[in-house]
């Protein structure tokens, strides 16, 4: 009898265990189904909200694209500048350019005179070019002798030697002079002359004055007069 009781308890325990296992599996399956249902519900809700928000945007974008209007709808009033014909556009541009061009400054005329005052302009800077006075050729340049006869070849043979005077100096036979510090003094030329005759040297203040064909040589040693020699005489 004890064996029968034990067998009965064992069967009851197995039945309760199987019943407990079956109830636990049902609960797990139910929880899984509920979780899936909640996930699908959340997905459907999000899709519904997204579609509900996107539909107005699409309709607004579609409204932003204007459709081709009939010709009657284009006839709206334009500004006066745009209602002008196309031809006078060049004249309008010319008027605008004329308005932008500054008006010339009127010239002022002085009372009682015909002179006109030009409009003032900015100061102009010009490079100052130093003006060099033209070099004056001395009139004492040439060949001179004590007289016209002394300019000939025969007179030279007799000892009459003409003097050849240049801008830098003078020479007559063995005597030669070099000029420096030449200045103009009225109708004459004043200069310093360094002279030599191969044996002596001296310096004199010389004054040369030409009167027609005559030359007056003045220095501390005295004054001499000479006649200009012509080319035929030389």
UniProtKB/TrEMBL annotation:
Keywords from the named record: Membrane, Transmembrane, Transmembrane helix
Disordered as annotated region, ranges: 118-143
TM segment ranges: 29-52
Keyword Membrane in record: yes
Annotated protein name in UniProt: Peptidase inhibitor family I36 protein
The organism's taxonomic lineage, starting at the top: Bacteria, Pseudomonadati, Pseudomonadota, Alphaproteobacteria, Hyphomicrobiales
């Amino acid at each position: 009898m004890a064996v029968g009781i034990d067998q009965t308890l064992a069967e009851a325990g197995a039945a309760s265990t199987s019943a407990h296992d079956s109830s636990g599996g049902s609960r797990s399956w139910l929880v899984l189904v509920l979780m899936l249902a909640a996930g699908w519900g959340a997905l459907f809700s999000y899709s519904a909200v997204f579609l509900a928000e996107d539909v107005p945007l699409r309709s607004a974008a579609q409204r932003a694209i204007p459709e081709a209007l009939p010709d009657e709808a284009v006839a709206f009033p334009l500004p006066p500048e745009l209602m002008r014909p196309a031809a006078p556009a060049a004249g309008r541009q010319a008027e605008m350019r004329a308005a932008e061009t500054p008006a010339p400054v009127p010239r002022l005329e002085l009372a009682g005179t015909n002179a006109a005052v030009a409009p003032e302009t900015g100061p102009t800077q010009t490079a100052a070019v130093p003006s060099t006075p033209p070099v004056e050729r001395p009139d004492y340049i040439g060949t001179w002798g004590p007289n016209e006869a002394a300019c000939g070849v025969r007179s030279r043979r007799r000892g009459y030697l003409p003097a050849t005077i240049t801008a830098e100096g003078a020479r007559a036979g063995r005597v030669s002079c070099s000029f420096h510090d030449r200045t103009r003094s009225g109708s004459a030329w004043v200069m310093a002359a360094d002279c030599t005759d191969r044996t002596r040297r001296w310096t004199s203040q010389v004054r040369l004055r030409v009167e027609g064909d005559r030359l007056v040589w003045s220095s501390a040693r005295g004054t001499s007069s000479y006649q200009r020699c012509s080319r035929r005489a030389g």
